């Protein structure tokens, strides 16, 4: 036996001592015939890392034998040169080896994957012996098997072909030859070929499979009888999903996994909640009967609901979490990845040994939704990887309305997109439960050993239409004629077990009756469910529950402590050579700390992060240019000009500080924002930030705002403190990148669901960011941040403003103005304030005050009323904005301002100063921009 494997065995306590000889013989037997050893030993041996060699040839001692083996394998691997192919037999030997490789690469195209038998696929010529110049006369000729893992070095061509067909052309279609890593390819070949694609399972394993199928079918039949015609997006036709997920959980648990997070769309979700997660059937029945969930103002349909529970596994207790999911198909996948990464970070689990993501997809969505590709792209990126995801495609063979796969995709399989990251793909016929079990075990073992994504394509069918109220035969006549005749997976498997003597008719009926009785009694039907779960396995949200909305919170940090923290923030290691302009930034920050210069935006922002870390709060920030900042204001990550190494001061403030993660993301908005939403919903103690490179980049992630960020709390009770920074400002740079589309976020505002802020000073951004975490309230924050304002000479603060101030929802007039003379009130938000201020000062207008509304939602009516109260002689109230009239804050916020104005003085009318309504966010000509800007400023003072 090769030393690496044997050493692992000898180091294992329960395999040492007197058992060594027995275990060695057992392993030798396993290598030649895995089905010949007990199932529990086979499972153990399968988890041992494979070094990629031909493990059927196992010398047990001698270094000499080890080198003999290496030499033998090397000779086998030698390419056949023209000189060496000297006989007809040798020529045929080469062709046999080519045939073996062809089956590994294309055997899946001849596999019987469709339970309905409707697929019309021609066997590729590559899989016929004639394609290689071989004939039936060669079938009884003995050839070397090369690296074919069938337990013998030589076999007849008939045996070789039969072994290949059994392995690759039955009910499993394995795609792994596109993987460039030879070790991974050999791993799959060995695992598949050694058991001919069909391991032998014990009667206990078979009985458990049947019980899981009985549960899957039983729930759907029960619901169909009890609530006929009601939408449930049932699992009929895909019942093998339940034993598949059950095996993922149990086998992952045997590796020591502590948490699994699952994301899935509608199909089979209710079945999974009851039969896998252990949701009480009585609670599900209440949802079918329309019972309202207390505490949720809107709630959601039952097949969008999440759930969590703890179950027992061979490796101990394991926490399961089902992610809440709207009807937007694949968008939950990156949310799951973010949640998993957060859990891994909390457990100090960088390799993904303790937390596993599982994403369950529909075939049409998997092929059609771009976020699938974006999520795959995350899989090995350091800021987003989770140690490999197990993907399950519930392949119904038809989309929502698609009548032909030719209209659903351009690829052969719905799963071909996974090849972009070289993920292995295991297609399996859903009506062969033991094949389903086998590929599931392969997937878990592969993920645990190689820490990469793997795809299980569960080829099944949809016994009913898209939902239970849908009649599918109108668009799928032939398919549904076959489905009407198709016996269920459970029936087929039960008959097979009865025929093999593994079950009796009485055993089968008892399982059906037992499950039905449990449902009638409203009992839990998951035997592994932990009734008193270990609370250490999940996050405690209790400190963040039940808090009413508050605008203010104490965000002060004592001045001496602030200076102490700032000193660490501006410290650069000796010998670390920074770029000249960056060096100037850090020199200026040292002067700001000493009080010799006013605080600018970039420094106030990084001081907010530093003080939060000091308070014990982790900080995570991602976006396409967050290290430097799109407008070169942040410089949180320094790059050595000498050796290109990176130094991040915020990671090096003090010993034992909380995590500070800063990642420049790949060029994605939708998946990355969804990832950060998932991360934030799992780490309530952290400040989690996504920054758009420009504010309008968030357009590509609108579904995340619409269906998670703005409504997750009212639909699902899901709290989230995610912060989104969107650069916004009109600088004459054209329609793109001027507007962050403020109006879209304000349209989403209701019931204190999110916060929308437009800070205009460094102190404001400092206190806003600190408030987001220090205050126990957890609400998403949408912050419109500046561009040119980052270096505006008037947009400055002092260190004392940071130490003593707080976030102001409304900033009053800053100049000394006699209230009795004031007749005009201009309200505004954002950068336009400084243009208004400059114009007012230049014109000496002492009859006008300018008030900044820094928080547009929840709108601070009381604070605004308090600020304008001293001005008793107002005659004009104007809202001024840079955005066109149909955009910005005007339409969504004017009723708040009108209410305050009319309460202040009867008859005051709110007027508008800004750009005319426009289909485009901004004009494309600098001269036109300047004219428009001048006009809106003039209007603000002269309406």
UniProtKB/TrEMBL annotation:
Taxon lineage: Bacteria, Pseudomonadati, Pseudomonadota, Gammaproteobacteria, Pseudomonadales
Keyword Oxidoreductase: yes
Name the UniProt record assigns to this protein: 2-oxoglutarate dehydrogenase E1 component
Oxidoreductase among keywords: yes
Catalyzed reactions per annotation: N(6)-[(R)-lipoyl]-L-lysyl-[protein] + 2-oxoglutarate + H(+) = N(6)-[(R)-S(8)-succinyldihydrolipoyl]-L-lysyl-[protein] + CO2
GO BP: any one term: glycolytic process
EC number(s) on file: 1.2.4.2
Cofactor(s) demanded: thiamine diphosphate
GO cellular component, one term: cytosol
Cleavable signal peptide: none
